[in-house]
Amino acid sequence: MGGSGKAKGENLVGRHKNLGKRTALLSSLTLLSRILGLLREKLSATLFGDTSAVFDAFITAWRVPNLFRRFLGEGALSTAFQTAQTETEGAHGREAGRRLFRDTARMLTGLLLGVMVVTMGAIYLMPDQMPVTGWNWLGSDPAPVRELALRVMPFVLLACLSALVTGALHVRGRFEPPAWAPVSMNVVWIATLLALPWLAPDTGPGVDHDLERAKFLAWGVLLAGVVQLAVQVPTLRAQGLMGSRVALVSRPSGAPGAWTVLKRSAPLALGAAVYQINVMIDGLMAEGLLPDGGPTCYYYAGRLQQFPVAMVAVAATSAVFPLLQAHAHGRDFLATRKLHDRTQRAIAFWALPATCGLWILAEPVVAVCLGGGEFGTGGVERTSQALRLLTLTILPVGASGLLARTYYSMGDMKTPVRISSAMLIANVVLNVVFIRGLEMDVAGLALASAITAWGNLLLLFPGLGGRLGLPAPSDPLLGPLVRMGLAAALCGLVAGVTHSLGSDLIGSLGALVFAMGAGAFTYALAARVLSIEEFREVQDRIRAKLQDLKRKSD
C-alpha cells in the first residue's frame, strides 16, 4: 500500500484517540456489569443451591446460547464486522458502511433463525448416551436439559444481533452504549430471580419445584436478551446506521459485503474462542461425568474467574482492536507492535495480582459471594478447588485474546484456528485423563483448562515476529513481567495473612474486604518501589482526573 493507504490509516487512527479514557470507561462499565453478575449468581446459588440436578441442567442448557454470546459478542462477529466496516468506510465513506450494516443484519437474522431451528432439532433428537463411550452426556435425567435448552436457544439471535450492533458502534467510536448492554441484561436477570419466589412459590424441595423455577428463569433470560439489544438501538439510529436511506445506497465496487463478514466470522469464531469452547466442553463433560452439583460448581468458579478477565482483558482488547486494525491498514507495523506490547503489559499489570489474590483467597471469596441459603459448605469447597486452578488462566486468556486480534488485524486468520483446534483436542483428552483416570472432581476440568490456555498463548506468541513479521519490541517484556510478578506475589501473601488475622475479629465479609484492600495497597506500593511503568500511567490518569474534577468544581 502506498501513500494513500497510509493516509487512510492515519484517518482511521484519528477516530480512535483518547485510548486511555476509553479503556477506563469500558473498564468502569464492565466492573458494574460484573458486580451485577456476581449478585445474579449469589441469588441463583441461594435459590437453587449447590446440588440441584435441575440447576445443573439449566447451566448445561445455557452454555449453548452463551457460547454464541461469548465468542460472537466478544470475538468473531464483532471483530469481522469491525474489519469490514473499517475497510469500507475508510475507502468508500460512511454511506457504504451503512449499507454494509443493513445487509449484514438481514443476512445474519436469516442465518441465525436457521441455526436455531437446526440446533433445537439436534438437541431434541440426540441420543441420551454418547456414542462409543456410553456416557450420559446430558446427565442421568436428560429431559430437563432438553426442555430448558429449547427455551433459551432464541437468545442466540438476540446475542448475535447485539454483537453486530456493538461492532458497528465501536468502529464509529461509540463505546459507552455497547458497554451498557450487559449491565442492562444483568438487571433484568436479577429482577427475574427476585421475582421467582412469587412466580413459583416454594412447595418444598424437589425436582418439580426447581424445574418450575428454571422455566420462569429461562423466560427472564430471553427478556434480558431483548433489553440488551434494545439499549443500543437509539445510538445506532443517531449514527445513521438504521433507516430507509440505507436501502437507497448501492454497495461500491470492491467493498466487502455481508457474505464477506460472515465468511470472516467462521475462522474467527474458533480462533478467538478456544477458551470459551473449552468451557462449554467442560460443562457438557461435567454434566455427564460428575455427581450432582458438579456443573453448577464449575460454572460458578468460571464466573468468579471471569470477573478479572472481563475487567482487564475483554475491555482492553475491545478498546484497542480498532486502533490495531487502523495501524495495520496503514501499514504502520512498528506502531502495531508497540500498541500490542503496551497493551500486553497493561493486561499483565492487572491480571497477575488478580491471579495471586484469587488463588490465596479462593475459599473466602466463594463463601462470601455464593455461600448461604441452599448453597452449603460442600459447594463452597468444590467451587474453591476449581477456582484456584482457573485463576491460572487469567493471564493467558487475556494475552491470547490480544494476540489473536493482532493476527486478525494483520490479515492472518488461519494460525489462531490451527492452534485453537489443537488445544480443543488436548482439552478433551486431559478432561478424560483427569476425571476418569485420576478420579478428580471439578478441579480436573479446571486444570485441563489452565494447561490448554497456557498452551494457546505459548504457541501464538512466537508468530508475532516470525509469521507476522512485526518488528522486534523496542522495550523488552520479560523485565517488566518479572517485576509485576514479584509485586503480585507480595500482594497475595499480604492478602492471605491479613484475612487469616481478621476473620475471627471482623467476620468473613469484613476480613475479605480488608484483605483485598491490604493486598491492593501492597501491590501499589511494590509497583512504585519497583518502578513499574504501568503504575505510573495509572497515577498520571488519576491525577489528570482529579485536576479535571477540581477545574469543574471551581
In short:
The chain is mainly alpha-helical and 554 residues long. 80% of the residues lie in helices and 0% in strands.
List keywords for this structure.
554 residues, mainly alpha, 2 domains, disordered N terminus
State the low-pLDDT regions, or none. Answer: 1-17
Mean pLDDT: 80
**Helix share, percent:** over 70%
Biggest beta sheet attributes: none
Radius of gyration: 23 Å
Number of strands: 0
The outline comes out as: globular
What fraction of residues sit in β-strands?
Answer: under 5%
Helix and strand sequence: HHHHHHHHHHHHHHHHHHHHH
- Put simply, the count of helices is 21
- Briefly note the structural class of the backbone: mainly alpha
Number of domains: 2
Describe this structure in words.
By secondary structure, this protein is mainly α. The chain has 2 domains: 3-475, no CATH class; 476-554, no CATH class. 80% of the residues lie in helices and 0% in strands. It has 21 helices and no strands. It has helices at 3-14, 19-48, 53-73, 76-92, 94-125, 142-152, 155-171, 176-199, 207-230, 233-238, 258-272, 274-289, 294-329, 333-360, 362-370, 377-390, 394-409, 414-437, 442-460, 478-529, 533-553. The longest helix has 52 residues, at 478-529. Mean pLDDT is 80; it is low at 1-17.
